[in-house]
Write a structure and sequence with these properties.
Blueprint (H helix, E strand, L loop, with lengths): L2 H31 L5 H28 L3 H10 L5 H9 L1
């Protein structure tokens, strides 16, 4: 697999992880805590967790391929826990 394909896969993982995080924060959590409907958190939370793990593994794997410094890798990983962070990472580092 070429480096461009690996970057494309990580880019899509980043976008999907960011969208799932925003969906969890701004739709699922209010449904759970305001309207007492926890089902959405269960569904979105599971997919977000899987995407989060894929994002971290992808970042570590790609850091070796692209020779990122430890600081860059830490910024990219930090981006996964901030709202809109994965979109920043996707634009700045990919």
């Amino acid at each position: 697999m070429t480096l461009q394909n690996k970057i494309k896969i990580f880019r899509w993982t980043s976008i999907l992880e960011g969208l799932s995080f925003l969906l969890l924060l701004f739709i699922a959590m209010p449904l759970k805590y305001i309207w007492d409907q926890p089902r959405m958190v269960e569904l979105v939370g599971m997919y977000h967790g899987i995407l989060f793990i894929a994002y971290i593994f992808g970042a570590v794997y790609l850091s070796k391929e692209m020779s990122w410094s430890t600081k860059t890798l830490m910024i990219i990983c930090l981006g996964s826990v901030l709202p809109f962070g994965p979109f920043y990472v996707e634009r700045k580092y990919l």
